[in-house]
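Chain and conformation:
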Amino acid sequence: MTTTGQALHREGRREASTLELLRRRYGCNYITVERLLLDHLPHIGTERYLRAEIRAGRIALPLSRLHDSERAPLIVYLSHLAAFLDRAEQGATNAA
């Protein structure tokens, strides 16, 4: 999958990008960190551990808040998640 290009299947149909697939699945432009952990990073048990992994540079995924409040939930924009998933796929393909 690709977030920018529109790859074609061998049958000639356009393949949906990672970002398009995520938008269809979630129906908005972001997901909460809790949803991220459940759906995409189940091996990371807590938000605290995820933040530590991001700070250490082992996970390149920016977290945001919807507004400027410590009580606002942490979110991940689907465009960032799609890029992260595409990089992970590319790394796995290159390693194989």
In short: The chain has a mean pLDDT of 88. The chain is about 45% helix and 10% strand. Strands lie at 30-32, 64-65, 74-77. The radius of gyration is 15 Å.
